[in-house]
Amino acid sequence: MKKSDLAALLLLGAIWGASFLFMRMGADQFGGMALAGMRAIGAALCSLPLLLSRRRLAEMRTHWRPIAIVGLANSALPFVLFSYAAQSLPSGVSAISDAIAPLLVAASGWMWLGERLDATRASGLVIGLTGVVWLVAGTVGFEHGGGSTGWAMAACVGANVCYTFGAHYSQRRLRGVAPLSVATGSQVAAAVLLLPFTVWLWPAKMPGVQAWLAMLGLAAVCTSIAYVLFYRLMSRIGATKSMAVLYLIPVFGVLWGLVFLHEPVTVAMAGGCIIILLGVALTTGLVRFRFPGTKVAAANEG
């Protein structure tokens, strides 16, 4: 990997890690639904220049139904769920929870799609889910009222379930469609889907300047620019190496929460983050163990 590509990867991890900081900053004043809606609408507006491509418009017209479903699963619902969670959870905890998506993709592929799990990937699933239990047990409690941290963590898990469905669905229904066409069309679809709910649940008191800046950061930087950067990076270094960004998001999410919001880094957060990332590394094949009786070699051999 070239130094420029490594720098782009670090930048993307920092940007997506900052999305949890921005949601934490804006969720209380906008409310979860309005913030999610404005994020999708803002991202769709920022993506309008990409619609000037005739090929992209043709692809979106041809595949508008599956693209709309991906917009619902990969953008609209996760935006709402993570924004709701941001009203109760520290941004670092939400960022760590985002790392469970690859575990859910691997588990669902094994259970429902018949995808093979070798010993390394299976152990990664067990280790990663152990980290999730560690994180949940140390940070949440189901109290009375919708704003409890327990329900917020459930919303984070639900957002990752949506990502899992979106990953499998797009792989089956949108294979061969240009990634930027899917990204642009799905943001437009998410904006259309969330617009009526955004108007209906608009806060009675106008959000302050800080909340608006946080929303603009979410829409323009963490959504529109980040997607363009991600797909450009994939075209240069491939999808597998680009997925390394999943290991950077929790680290930057915790860092930004500590620096800008003075959120404490608890033992549960640190332990859960380390265990989950180890599980993800094993599940995705970044790290491999040698098991007795198998031909699985360590990643640093050969």
From TrEMBL:
Domain EamA: 8-136, 151-284
Compartment(s) where it occurs, according to its Swiss-Prot or TrEMBL record: Membrane
Organism: Dyella halodurans
Chain coiled-coil ranges: none
Keywords: Membrane, Transmembrane, Transmembrane helix
Record's bilayer topology term: Multi-pass membrane protein
Record's protein name: DMT family transporter
Main location: membrane
Pfam families: EamA
Keyword Iron tagged: no
Domain of life, per lineage: Bacteria
